[in-house]
Write a structure and sequence with these properties.
By secondary structure, this protein is of the alpha/beta class. Helices cover about 40% and strands about 25% of the residues. The chain starts with a strand and ends in a 7-residue tail after the last helix.
């Protein structure tokens, strides 16, 4: 049985930031100091997103090179990835996996080419969704700022056909609220996709992780606000889960 992974997410917008519902960004620390801290705490892996990269069209390869030099755990990089050359450069500067979001909506052929070239294990598809006024789960792109009119279910089915290594799903409505994960949607996606999932958006305490794992059987959970705005660390979460009988890397 695979052990559950707890994965801190780092959001970068000129500084390390965190917001609520992909808005109201506030600086929460220095990116290099935070990576060093997570190294010491022996997290399973890290996810790094450059929020500006999609809109600016510029991936900061020099910055990512410096971050990768400081990071001693597996590192997934996302933000502005839209060409094979982008992926090639990210892997060369130290990314272990590359995360694709907006381009996976706009150009599925690119995703297929990326998976064919680098293998499924290298490619993570990130999907941000939000409940629309009609109560449908709608995919958003460009760091959650642009609704697409595409349902989460339809996009998941399209992505599933390409067989990426993992799918990271983030509830915009739950992001930064620290009130728990969107368990209903995690279970929905699990029913229509056989690609391993990473759940993101909503952790406020250790119980939120446990509840999500028990009710969805998911094997990877990402979180950010809980590690920035409380004294809870990834190791605290792991110890709590182990005491609850969850198989965890610790």
């Amino acid at each position: 049985m695979h052990k559950v992974r707890i994965i801190p997410t780092l959001l970068y917008k000129n500084n390390l930031v965190k917001g609520k519902k992909f808005k109201s960004w506030r600086v929460v620390g220095n990116i290099y100091q935070m990576i060093k801290l997570y190294n010491l705490r022996e997290v399973d892996e890290l996810i790094f997103f450059d929020i500006n990269a999609t809109n600016s069209g510029k991936i900061q390869f020099d910055l990512i090179d410096e971050i990768a030099d400081e990071c001693f755990v597996p590192l997934t990089i996302g933000g502005g990835v839209k060409t094979i050359d982008d992926i090639e450069k990210l892997l060369k500067v130290g990314a272990d996996k590359v995360c694709i979001n907006t381009a996976a909506v706009e150009n599925l052929d690119f995703v297929k080419s990326a998976i064919d070239k680098y293998g499924s294990q290298c490619i993570v598809i990130s999907i941000d969704y939000k409940m629309s006024q009609s109560k449908d789960r709608e995919v958003h792109i460009n760091s959650g700022t642009k609704p697409t009119g595409i349902s989460l279910e339809a996009h998941i089915k399209n992505v599933n056909k390409l067989n990426p290594g993992e799918i990271l799903i983030t509830s915009i409505d739950h992001d930064g609220e620290m009130k728990g994960y969107d368990i209903d949607t995690i279970n929905l996606v699990s029913r229509i996709s056989d690609v391993p999932l990473i759940a993101s958006g909503g952790a406020g305490n250790c119980e939120d992780f446990f509840k999500t794992i028990k009710k969805t059987n998911i094997k990877a959970i990402s979180a950010a606000s809980i590690f920035h705005f409380t004294e809870i660390t990834p190791l605290d979460v792991k110890r709590f889960l182990k005491e609850k009988g969850i198989k965890i890397r610790i």
